[in-house]
Design brief:
single chain, 200 residues, alpha/beta, 4 helices, 23% strand
Amino acid sequence: MRKIIVVEFITLDGVMQAPGGSKEDTAEGFKFGGWMGPYFDEDGGKEMGKQMKETVGLLLGRKTYDIFSGFWPHHATETEGWPQINKIPKYVMSKTLENPSWENTEVLKDINALKELKKSTGPDLQVYGSSNLIQSLMKNDLVDELWLKIFPLTLGTGKRLFEKGTIPAAFKLYKSKVTPSGTFFGYYRRAGDVKTEDIV
C-alpha cells in the first residue's frame, strides 16, 4: 500500500495559499502571495531540498497540476531543483482534464479511483499545494503523513490547510527542525483516532 504524504508551507494560523509568489493564487482577492519569502533562509532551503529529493511520486489537484506542468518541464535540472520530477509518476485529480501533456501523468476522476491507487503497489505520493484535494484526502482519512513548514507569521485570511475536510485524527511528531528564521519543519505520522477520554 502506498503512503500519501502532504507537504505544505503554512502560516501560524494555518494559511497555505500562495506561499511562493504574488500571482500564484489570488482567488477570493488574496493579497498576501509570496508570504514565505522573508523567512525562507539557507537552512530551510536545504531541508526543503531533502524533501524534494525524496519525491518518487506526485498527487496533485488540478490547479496545482496546471501550475507545475507549466513550469517544471522546462526547469527540472540539478541547478534549479527536482531533476527527477518529469520522469516520476504523477497523478492529478480532475473530472475534466483529458490527455495531459506532462509526461508520466495519469488522471484520477474521483476519490474511489484514488483509494484503489493507494491500495496498489507503487511509490509513495507527495501532495503539494492542492488545497481542495487535501480536504477530500482528510475527509476520507487518506493522509498518512504531514510534512509541514510552519512560518512565524499570521495572515488572518486565505485558504487554510485544516478546513472542512478535517476529521478528528491523531498524529505523532517523529522528526523536526527549526531554522534560524524561526520556521518549524515538522514531520508527523498518522497515529490512530482521537480518544475522547484523553480530551480534558
